[in-house]
Amino acid sequence: MALRDGDFILIEYTVRVKETGNIVDTTNEEIARREGIYDSNKVYGPTLVVVGKGWVIKGLDEALKELDVGVEKEIEIPPEKAYGPRDPSKVKVYSLREFRRRGIDVRIGDAIDFGGQTGIVKSITGGRVVVDFNHPLAGKTLVYKVKVLEKLEEPVEKLKALVAKHLGIPLEEAKVDYNEAEKTVVVNIPVKIMTKAGIQYSKIALVSSIYEFFKDSVRRVVLQEVFERKIESGEAGKSSEKGESKGGEETSSESKESSQ
User: Fold this and answer.
1) Which of 6, 12, 140, 232 could form a disulfide with 27 if both were Cys (CB 3.0 to 4.6 A apart)?
2) pLDDT at 239 over 70
3) pTM of the model
């Protein structure tokens, strides 16, 4: 059955540049390590896509509608439906003195943020720095090997996938309770990501997505942070002997954030 706009699907993929054969992205950790593109900040494994929402490049988004669940397919995507053609006007020349004045140490190949844009330093000669602000894959034809693993139907499964995507955690670590009668969603925030850079923005984006996709079925979202004290077995035993604990001592601190 063909997929439609708004469908929640889990996909896996590997993408290479047609002209060179170089693999530039993948959801497979083993392939990423083998190809030297492993990113320790990335969560590998099946990734959520909501068809038609522009979460992936245009060419892939369109092609997904023609795929069936469980079938792997190779898709060729031209620059116009990927990262666009190269734009010569996005190649800028700056004075090396300007970078030094801002305390920026530049080297060829560096990715730098300059003037609110991210570019790659292409050359440094005669006191001049050439920076290319085109996307690294601009002008490239991409070949995706993609497979739709599953189409999510149940609300809780969709919610878990949204949590995993926005918080940057493995799908199996997403903890969600959904009370359909009260139209309330409770999300447990893992301790390990509580100090992660940009986590507050991730939370806001998650809540926004939940309200977008569950307009009529969710009125309240609770983001819950639970801290549990780990008790050594010996200490728990002593507490039990003194009658100070029911089944072992536990101390927890809980904070909740809600958005409506």
Assistant:
1) 12
2) no
3) 0.81
